[in-house]
Amino acid sequence: MNKTEQSILENIQKAKDGSQIAFSSLLDMFWNEVYAFQMARTKNENDAEDITIRTFSKAFDKIDTYDESYEFKTWLITISKNLHVDLIRKRKRSLLDEMDNHGDEVKKVLDESPSVEDQLITEQNLANLLRDIKKLKPHYQRVINLRYFNELSYADIAKELNEPVNNIKVKLLRAKKLLAEIIQKN
């Protein structure tokens, strides 16, 4: 077993124990591969990004079910493929059931206290930070604004955007990573 495989297995174990840092590391390691897989399937940036976010959200939610006899990447790609199939089915159903307007209820979940990343982002020079935030895609700008400027909890953001809480957590994680990259470039 090489160092990378060992590192992945260690991060998976830490993630199973609830480590947010391990989740973040796994997200960083596999984001591009899952996103590229979905871009090839959907040929649409928004769909690919949305499915990728939901893939990691579901994977992190179900991390305890991961079987280490399979590659982690394969497990993620399988989840991603299934989510894409579900999306296609849902779109077909919604076309047929256009008159039916059923909404999913958002689960209320206790919010976590701000992480070190959250505190660093909050402490940045406001003018420069706003300039950098405007460089993000609109949906990332929105979750950052709701979280840090409106000071909404994950549950409140989920309700506002009509998305599952885990999707919000992954979007915020991704938005913070992209924002940190923009800040470092400056």
Principal-axis shape: globular
Helix tally equals 9
Beta content comes to under 5%
The CATH topology of the largest domain comes to: Rna Polymerase Sigma Factor, Chain: A
Terminus-to-terminus distance: 39 Å
Order of helices and strands: HHHHHHHHH
Structural class: mainly alpha
Helix coverage percent: over 70%
Model regions low in confidence, pLDDT < 50 over at least 5 residues: 99-112
Structure in a nutshell:
This protein is an all-alpha fold. Helices cover 73% and strands 0% of the residues.
Tags for this model:
Rna Polymerase Sigma Factor, Chain: A; Arc Repressor Mutant, subunit A; 186 residues; mainly alpha; globular; 2 domains
General description of the model:
The protein has helices spanning 3-16, 20-42, 45-61, 72-96, 116-123, 126-133, 138-149, 154-161, 165-185. By secondary structure, it is an all-alpha fold. The chain folds into 2 domains: 3-96, Rna Polymerase Sigma Factor, Chain: A; 116-185, Winged helix-like DNA-binding domain superfamily/Winged helix DNA-binding domain (Arc Repressor Mutant, subunit A, Orthogonal Bundle). Helix 1 crosses helix 2, helix 2 runs antiparallel to helix 3 (45-61) and helix 8 packs across helix 9 (165-185). 26% of the residues are buried. Residues 99-112 have low confidence and may be disordered.
